[in-house]
Amino acid sequence: MNIFAIIILATLGIDFLLNLAADFYNLKSLDKGLPNEFSDVYDEETYDKSQRYTKVRTKFGILTSAFNLVILLVFWFAGGFNWLDGLIRSWELGTIWTGLAYIGTLLLAKSILSLPFSLYSTFVIEEKFGFNETTLKTFVLDLVKGLGLGILLGGPLLAGILAFFTFIDQYAWLYAWGAVTAFTLIIQFVAPRWIMPLFNDFEPLEEGDLRQKIRKYADKVNFALEGVYVMDGSKRSSKSNAFFTGFGKNKRIALYDTLIENHTENELVAVLAHEIGHYKKKHIFKNMAISIAQTGIMFFLLSVFLNSQGLYDAFYMEQISIYTGLIFFGMLYAPIDMIVSVFMQVLSRKYEFEADEFASTTYQKEPMIEALKKLSKDNLSNLTPHPFYVFLNYSHPPVLERIETIKKN
C-alpha cells in the first residue's frame, strides 16, 4: 500500500466517521422540546412526527453510506478496477470509446446498486410520512430521462476531456477547463427552457391578485420580471419549495404548486423576495465564479498527478490510462473537495441570511417569518439540529436561527 492509497483510505474513513459523529450528535439534539417560536404552527403530534422523520432519514443515510463504502472497498481491494479495465480493453473500441465505456459502466453499476435504496426512500420512507406523490411510472421515466441526458450531454463532454488529455500534452488542463466552463454556462442558459421541462411542467403564474402583488414588488426593487412560474412539485412530493434559476432572458423564479396552496399571498411574495434577493446580491454569479475557479484548480492538479505510476499502483492497475486516472484522481482530490464543500456550505448559509435580510427589509418581516414556519412544518424540518451537523451539511441556516436574525434586522 503506497502513499496514494493511504491518503484515499484515510479520506474515506475520516469522511465516514465525521458524518457518523455528526449524525449521532444530531439525533441527540432531538431530545429538546418544541421551541416556543413554533408553538403557533406545530402541535405535539406534528412535532413528534418531524423528530421521527429525522431519525428514520438519518439512520437510513448511515446505512446507505456504509453500504456504498463497503462496496467501494471490496471492489477496490478485489482488483475490480483492473479487472474491468482488462474486460473493456478486450472489446478494442479505441482510446476514447474505451474510456467512455469504462466510466459509463462504473456509473451504471453504481446507479443499479443505489436503485433499491432510492426505491425504499421514495416508496417506503417518504410514503410513510405522507410526502410521496410519485408513481412507479414517474419514477422509472425520471431514471430513463436522467440516463438519456447523461448520455447526450455528459457523454460528449467526457469524450472531449479524454481527448484533451490523450492528444494534448502541456495545456490539456486549460482546454478541459475551458470546455467544462463553457458547458456549465450553456447549461445555465438552456436548462430552464429545455431541460427542466422534461421533468416538470412550468406554467406562468396566472393573472390575479398574487401576480399583481409580485409585479408591484418587482417594480419596487427594480427587478426585471421575465418569468414567475408554477411548478407541479406535487407530481412527486407534497413538500414545498421555491427556487431561482437561469440567466438573462431565460432566468425564472419557480414556485411549487404545493407552496402556493399552503401559503398566503403575502407569504408567497416574501418567499419570492428572498429568491430575488439572491439575484440582487449576485449570489448566483459569485457561486458560478467560485465553481469555475475550483474546476480550474482541479484540472491543473489532475494534469500533475495523471501520469503518476503510484496512483495506478494504489488500485492494482496493470496499465495506465487517462480514463482510470480521472476516477482515481477524483478520489485523491477528495480531501480538498471536503474542505471546499464545508467552505461552500458556510458561504451558502451566509447568502441565505443576506437574502432573508433583503426580503425582510424590502418587503415585510412577518410574512417571511410565517412562511419559514409553515415550510418547516410542511417539510417536517428538524428544528433543533446540532451545530456540528449544520456545519458539515446545511446549505441553509437552521430555521429558528433565520427567524431570530430576521427579527433583529
Would you write up a description of this structure?
The structure is a single chain. With 409 residues, this protein is mostly helical. A hairpin with a 6-residue loop joins β3 (242-245) and β4 (252-256). The chain folds into two domains: 3-169 and 301-408, no CATH class; 202-280, Metalloproteases ("zincins"), catalytic domain (Zincin-like, 2-Layer Sandwich), CATH 3.30.2010.10. The longest helix is centred in the first third of the chain and has 34 residues, at 44-77. The radius of gyration is 23 Å and the shape is globular. The protein has 16 helices and four strands. It has a four-stranded mixed β-sheet with strand order 1-2-4-3. α9 crosses α13. Residues 27-200 form the CAAX prenyl protease 1 N-terminal domain. One of its GO terms (biological process) is CAAX-box protein processing. InterPro entries: CAXX_Prtase_1 (IPR027057), Peptidase_M48 (IPR001915), Peptidase_M48_N (IPR032456). Pfam families: Peptidase_M48, Peptidase_M48_N. The chain crosses the membrane at residues 6-25, 60-79, 99-125, 146-168, 174-191, 288-308, 320-343.
